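Run log // design_07
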């Protein structure tokens, strides 16, 4: 079982916010309830909102109870007794000095790692980088930092972010978190190919007619208008999660899962990924009623849905169309990868248009299935489509996404985190599309809540003679 082997202190900047309550506090509960905590740990919330330790502990416990089923009160009490709060401004040096003093009071040993978690909007990153760089980073205790996406708003700002971070901190201190990488099912896209030659033989461009990646959400923007209306789903989902899924599926298999080798392979893939640049290859949608949300302007053109056609310019993947689509307020929560195989030459002669498919469902329930055509009894060559399906629920040492990533950070392993070169490559693809959106080069198509997105998304793929395979 993966355990936090080192004693640690986690300092959560922005501890009064939504990510902390929804993900970080429940993950810390998961660590303790599953016996993954080290001998000694401390959790310190830091934000501007005035609070006492007791008030913060009560909030912390309430969030855990809200997010986790069947909470064990005794375990929660033990966790909460290690939780503290420090009120501070993000741009006040003295508040960080006060934080360091507080840490010395509460930490029982110096033999530990401190993890600073940036659970704040990116607009606050600069101040905290400076504050932490001038204080916590000068202490003798080893310091690591977790940053949550988005990493910049485009190529240029992501480079600036990197410069600011690395002006103060060493590369091995920095952990860039995309929570999709904490999903066992996402990493499985690579490890299935690594461990099963059947997959590595099949998943090669020469065998494949097209690849489809879908990430649908049934929820709307859930009160996050301030963030979402400035960003849109292209940057929120495609630049990060969908490109990561595509990379794990198509990158060359590194000889080991050492962090450096995995990143090298991923960067190589992303360097070769491209979007042709034609407005015809992209669909921009917005769900009906989006403009009525509090905080969204009446004439907002922010996209809540995109579908696009991509390619990979490599010997292996040349000529294989890759279709990505993602949106909010759709029929159901669903993430899948469908690989549609090219038909056999004789299959067409027989007038059999159906194709083999390999379907990997990542959410809500993980599974892998093959869609095979099997001959029915008798003299006629008639085929039935059979689905051989296997659930691939995580077995063994399974954790939720943030829990796994916290454990990897405490262990100092970067393999499941992003690296700036791959972030740059992703922005290089996204930036020109973002510009097309800003200049209204791509029409904004409205779509019904509860459906599968605008009709134009169907037309995008049908133009190439394919259709979306909706297995939900
Ligand atoms: N929420 C999610 O599900 C989610 C998912 C993926 C990534 N993320 C990323 O995780 C980070 C945190 O997200 P979040 O949703 O928790 O953010 P949030 O709730 O908007 O903000 C977290 C805390 O930061 C402080 N803060 C907010 N706006 C500020 C401002 N303009 N100036 C100074 N301080 C401010 C507030 O604390 P005080 O006022 O008390 O200081 C707030 O409670 C962001 O980078 C976000 O993009 C979030």
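design_07 sequence
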């Amino acid at each position: 079982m993966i355990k936090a082997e080192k004693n640690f202190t986690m300092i959560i900047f922005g501890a009064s916010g939504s990510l902390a309550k929804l993900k970080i506090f429940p993950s810390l509960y998961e660590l303790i309830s599953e016996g993954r905590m080290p001998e000694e740990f401390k959790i310190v919330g830091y934000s501007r909102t005035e609070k006492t330790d007791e008030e913060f502990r009560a909030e912390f416990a309430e969030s855990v109870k809200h997010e986790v089923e069947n909470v064990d009160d005794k375990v929660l009490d033990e966790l909460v007794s290690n939780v503290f709060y420090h009120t501070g401004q993000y741009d006040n040096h003295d508040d960080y000095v006060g934080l360091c003093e507080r840490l010395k009071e509460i930490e029982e040993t110096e033999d530990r790692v401190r993890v600073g978690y940036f659970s704040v909007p990116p607009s606050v990153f600069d101040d905290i980088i400076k504050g932490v760089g001038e204080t916590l980073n000068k202490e003798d205790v080893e310091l690591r930092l977790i940053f949550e996406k988005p990493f910049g708003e485009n190529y240029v700002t992501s480079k600036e972010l990197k410069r600011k971070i690395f002006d103060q901190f060493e590369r091995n201190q920095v952990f860039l978190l995309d929570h999709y990488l904490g999903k066992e099912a996402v990493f499985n896209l690579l490890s299935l190919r690594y461990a099963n030659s059947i997959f590595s033989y099949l998943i090669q461009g020469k065998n494949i007619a097209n690849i489809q990646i879908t990430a649908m959400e049934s929820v709307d923007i859930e009160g996050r208008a301030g963030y979402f209306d400035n960003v849109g789903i292209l940057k929120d989902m495609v630049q990060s999660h969908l490109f990561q899924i595509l990379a794990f599926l198509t990158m060359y298999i590194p000889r080991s899962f050492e962090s450096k080798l995995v990143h090298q392979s991923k960067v190589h893939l992303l360097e070769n990924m491209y979007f042709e640049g034609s407005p015809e290859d992209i669909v921009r949608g917005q769900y009906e009623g989006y403009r009525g949300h509090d905080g969204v302007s009446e004439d907002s053109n922010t996209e809540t849905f995109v579908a696009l056609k991509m390619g990979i310019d490599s010997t292996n993947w040349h000529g294989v169309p890759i279709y990505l689509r993602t949106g909010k307020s759709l029929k159901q929560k669903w993430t899948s990868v469908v690989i549609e195989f090219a038909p056999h030459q004789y299959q067409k002669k027989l007038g059999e248009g159906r194709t083999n498919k390999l379907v990997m469902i990542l959410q809500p329930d993980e599974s892998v299935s093959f869609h095979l055509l099997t001959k029915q009894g008798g003299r006629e060559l008639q085929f039935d489509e059979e689905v051989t399906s296997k659930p691939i629920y995580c077995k063994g040492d399974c954790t939720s996404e943030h829990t796994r990533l916290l454990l990897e950070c405490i262990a100092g392993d970067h393999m499941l985190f992003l690296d700036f070169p791959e972030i740059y490559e992703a922005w290089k693809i996204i930036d020109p599309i973002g510009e097309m959106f800003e200049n209204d080069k791509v029409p904004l198509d409205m779509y019904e809540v509860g459906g599968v997105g605008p009709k134009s998304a169907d037309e995008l793929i049908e133009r190439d003679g394919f259709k979306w395979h909706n297995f939900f």
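Residues 14, 16-20, 22, 47-49, 90, 119-124, 148-150 surround NAP (CB under 6 Å).
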